[in-house]
């Protein structure tokens, strides 16, 4: 079971101090948060992708490569990478490069994005978002698995004899999650390829997301990747923690009341009662999070949103201390109890390499000399992939 934090990279006014951090302050602050996540024993850090104010994370791979250089065990991910407005060729290349630089300590979550103005900025039409997402991922999936790709679709220029470089580390693609708030077609896509499915699990009751997770599990089994309980599921969540419950409520209330997403809407008490948001003591966060397994069954990854709504850096770092020292150790122990032994752990680069190659040495692609862009047929590499079993969870 993996635990981590994810950020949407918002630059939001602090309603208590009245200050709004600069982009520079927020970028450096989130870098400190990511490194501290490893220091307190968390497993994963993920950052979203946005191309409009008040968000700064327009280049997740750049940010994550910077974090990779400062950490040793932390797995780096996204929340999410836009499979619609990004060219799948660029996704294939940038995240393969990140995979190499991070030594395999990465995966990524793909999503459509729901900010309508972003689509025309990148020459896309939001009305085609779903077929665009499906086609782009089909191409990305092939680019990471085939040395030479011929492709013709509806949303980009054709490719003829194209090779994405660098090839994935050990010739094993990064593990992919597909994230969704409400779209069963994305859950279907995740199940078809045997990828992971991440339920956003914010702003709505758990029962809303349960429908998506159940559908994904059923389709995962339908496509022959394993039993429904072996499907790879991740959940989001929100928490604000203080030693005493009443202190957590009083400290977080002004941030909740002014938050861009739910500010000036429901009361804090009503929202925490109706959604996965937990505002309280470490034990209250533990109890509510343990309840997620009762709803969803055993799952592989639990992520928390803790750095939004204008919370100052000092407060977020304190939240991390409480999460890493008092909450996550208990969750690890309790969620390990009675866990179905057939439920796999979250895929890692090492596990994917073992699944593909067994005891064989992984393929290490080496370009043929002096062939460059003049390859007219066959692989542009010296070696070919050894015969091996299918990669974990992939058809």
Structure explained in plain terms:
It is a single chain. By secondary structure, the protein is of the alpha/beta class. The protein has one domain (2-374): Luciferase-like domain (TIM Barrel, Alpha-Beta Barrel), CATH 3.20.20.30. 39% of the residues lie in helices and 12% in strands. Helix 1 (23-39) runs parallel beside helix 11. It is globular. The chain starts with a strand and ends in a 38-residue tail after the last helix. GO terms for molecular function: monooxygenase activity; oxidoreductase activity, acting on paired donors, with incorporation or reduction of molecular oxygen.
The level of helicity is 25-40%
Instruction: Give the overall shape.
Output: globular
Strand order of the largest sheet: 3-2-1-13-10-9-8-5-4
Radius of gyration, taken over Cα atoms and rounded to an integer in Å = 21 Å
Low-confidence stretches: 385-395
Q: Which class in CATH terms? A: Alpha Beta
CATH architectural label: Alpha-Beta Barrel
Order of helices and strands: EHEHEEHEHHEEEHEHEEHHEHEHH
Based on DSSP secondary structure assignment, what is the total number of beta strands?
13
Largest sheet: 9 strands, parallel
- What is the mean predicted local confidence, pLDDT? 92
How many domains, in number, for the residues?
1
SS-based structural class? alpha/beta
CATH superfamily: Luciferase-like domain
- As for the CATH topology, it is TIM Barrel
Structure annotation, total helices: 12
Strand content: 5-15%
Question: How far apart, in Å, are the first and last alpha carbons?
Answer: 24 Å
Domain Luciferase-like: 1-296
GO molecular function: monooxygenase activity; oxidoreductase activity, acting on paired donors, with incorporation or reduction of molecular oxygen
Region (Disordered): 338-395
Organism: Leucobacter massiliensis
